[in-house]
Amino acid sequence: MRRKRTTALVALAAVGTLAAGCASLPSTSDPHVLRPYSPQASAAPVITPEAGREADLLLRDFYTASAIPSSDYEAARAFMTTQASAAWDPTEETLVVDRIGVNTLPGGTPSRRSFSVHGNVVGVLGPGGAFRPERGSYEATIEMEMVGGEWRISSLPAGVVLERTELRNQYQPFNIYFFDAQGQELVTDRRWLFTRRETLPSALISLIMEGPTERLLPAVPNTLPAEVSYIGYENGTYKFTGFGGVREDERAQFAAQVVWTLASAGISGPFALEADGAPLLADAETLTTDDFVELSPLIQAAGASKLYTLTDGSISLIDGGEKQPLADELGTAGNVITAEITANGNWVAVLDNADVNAPTVLRAGTLGGEGRDLITAITFTRPSFESRSAAVWTVADGTRILRSVRSAATGEVTTEEIVAEMPDGVRGNISVLRLSRSGARVVMVVDGHLYTGIVERRAPGERAVVNVVEYATELGGSVVAADWQPDGSLIVGTSSSVSPVLRVEQDGSSVTTLSVGNISAPVVAVAASPNMLYVTDANALLQLPSTGSDNPLWREVPGLEGVRAMPIVAK
Predict the structure, then answer these.
(1) H or E element, residue 200
(2) What's the pLDDT at 552?
(3) CATH number at residue 507
């Protein structure tokens, strides 16, 4: 069931800013929506064995109770004999299955029965509530016996097994924030928590103290000194110790982590943070998100992104329902195959060559200015910008992941190959590669399968794609397009008429089919702004509001009615 990791490989890349005239790309990490937080007396439901319950039904109740970890799984232990409860170890990994099947095994007696419990594994809930997609089969034998006239579990394997519906019912995903290796971006580490509501803030802070998940660690190294600890919430103040040797800038980074983690969970500020008996930050008794607005992992919904489209080799800006062709080479040359444009006007494009025997060209520049050729190849995937540094990634000829960057010292653009440590046996053609806004994650489509990986900074200028995991395996080889949404999830286009567009959560914990209305598969391009989703299907470029729409139909983009175009959302 587990995937083996490949041997680490090192790939060199240069440091700097891409192409003459290209500025750094201002960006924030995977954004999320703030929601209100309402403390409650208790979030834990009460589940106890029902008197006279049949053995198979009691066993199903046990699995429902197993979703409640409170008091060392006290609710689940109530369904066991005294001996079984003492022997059961629930601290093994928690398996998440699609559903739990229960079948009676032959040979039972009026006082003893055996059951086969089985299901398809969809993931594992690891330490700290980190979800990891897995695929495999689960099967176990459960022994039950009569105790005082009631059925109780007398023997069961270690660990906890949850149905996916119970994970959603009893747990909630929250966003823990950590800084990237350069200390510039807040990167989301998504966790699933079951907790009494009044303890949620302390639970979130405790996860910050424990550091990022193992999978994300290569992109967000944990630099918090070992002696730093959280000692609790008292009189409206979150209290810490061990900060005596921590620099002021490191204190500010830690404060930003705490403030944005609590705020994204809907916990209202201002927040009082105290270290070793004094304010964590000098002259700041309380802190709010306004104190760290430049690090905001949120994106405003209104007017945050411009929509460009690529049609017949030319790029246009869509503004107010009107199509406005760009005045520079992107809008006039007529040989653009694919492109990426940033919010501040940097662009990189793949250009066709007039000579059919010549390779295509990767070219970069700024809107309204001149571009310069970077590299050539037979084919390129759509390029993707790194955060801030404006380095560009693309895949040449389906197999070589390339990173192009301009040296700040010499002005020369260098391109180096990045090695991706793919799962064993994955050697296919990479048709899509897209970096997340923070640059900490990458999504790839390999022979129609969806993969995500972590971008590791091994040294200045060095990158590698590690900890690659396949998501949404149920889609088979039908994936055609994928990109990151502003909230950190993925929008995915497929060749399936049943599920042409899907939302895949950042941790791979769920796959949701979006509205099928008015879409004709295949969906060959996807994009997302904070308030709109865009897809290119077999007929046209369509859009759908990302939230709050009562109309489930995808509609043609105003100004592009009847036009099949590729969407480019400036980020």
Answers:
(1) helix 200-210
(2) 86
(3) 2.120.10.30
- The answer to whether residue 9 sits within a structural domain is no
Question: Is the domain of 354 the same as that of 289?
Answer: no
pLDDT in tens, 114-156: 999 999 999 999 989 999 999 999 999 999 999 999 999 999 9
Q: Are residues 89 and 103 in the same domain?
A: yes
- What integer pLDDT is reported at residue 425 of this predicted model? 92
Among 138, 170, 202, give the residue marking a domain's end. Answer: 170
The pLDDT value given to residue 304: 59
Q: What is the DSSP string of 397-456?
A: TTTEEEEEEEBTTT--EEEEEEPB-PPTT----EEEEEE-TTSSEEEEEETTEEEEEEEE
Amino acid, single-letter form, for residue 146: M
Instruction: Report pLDDT for 24.
Output: 26
Whether a cis peptide bond, with omega within 30° of 0, leads into 127 is no
Long-range contacts of 210-213 (CB under 8 A, 24+ apart): 210/127, 210/128, 211/178, 212/176, 212/178, 213/126, 213/128, 213/130, 213/189
Alpha-carbon span 313 to 326, nearest angstrom = 12
For residues 334 and 314, is the Cβ–Cβ distance under 8 A?
yes
Task: Supply the mean pLDDT for the chain.
Answer: 89
Range of the domain at 162: 55-170
Q: What are residue 132's phi and psi, to 5 degrees?
A: -130, 120
* In contact, 389 and 342? CB cutoff 8 Å: no
Residues of the chain scoring pLDDT < 70: 1-45, 195-198, 299-304, 389-390, 548-550
Q: Give the C-alpha separation, 292 to 273, whole Å.
A: 14
Is 18 a member of any domain?
A: no
Residue 177 DSSP label: E
Q: Encode 452-461: b = buried (16+ Cβ within 10 Å), e = exposed.
A: bbbbbbbeeb
φ, ψ dihedrals at 283, nearest 5°: 65, 25
Of 170, 191, 225, which residue is a domain's last? 170
**Residues 158-178: pLDDT tens digits?**
999 999 999 998 999 999 999
Report the number of distinct structural domains present in the chain.
3
pLDDT recorded at residue 153: 98
Please give the pLDDT value at position 408.
74
Q: Can you tell me the distance from the alpha carbon of 61 to that of 96, in angstroms, rounded to the nearest whole number? A: 16
Distance CA 394, CA 402 (A): 5
Amino acid sitting at position 306: K
Q: Residue 358's pLDDT is what? A: 83
Q: Is 50 a member of any domain?
A: no
